[in-house]
Write a structure and sequence with these properties.
With about 80 residues, the protein is an alpha+beta fold. The protein has one domain. It is about 10% helix and about 30% strand. The chain has a 4-stranded mixed sheet. The longest helix is centred in the first third of the chain and has 10 residues, at about 10-15.
Length: about 80
């Protein structure tokens, strides 16, 4: 789940309440920031990484994967907003 860092505590609590086992955060570092009302404009999003509590995790990568992803921000977001 990707989200603004201002909502981390709420989302992490909801994830655990829904039966999730939180492991770590991954940082999506974007090539440009999103304008907002904060003093500093955010140029990253945090991604909650975890799996269902009691379930076995299904890792498909190698041990050379970093927790900071340098991925360009799409110029347009076609996903529906809620």
């Amino acid at each position: 789940m990707a989200m603004s860092s201002s909502e981390l505590d709420v989302l992490q609590a909801a994830f655990r309440e829904a039966g999730g086992r939180w492991s770590t955060f991954i940082i999506w570092a974007k090539d440009r920031f999103t304008l907002g009302r904060a003093d500093y404009q955010r140029q990253y999003e945090t991604i909650l990484y975890g799996w269902a509590e009691g379930a076995q995790r299904h890792w498909r990568g190698d041990r050379d994967q970093g927790d900071v992803w340098l991925i360009k921000k799409p110029a347009r977001n076609d996903l529906p907003r809620r």
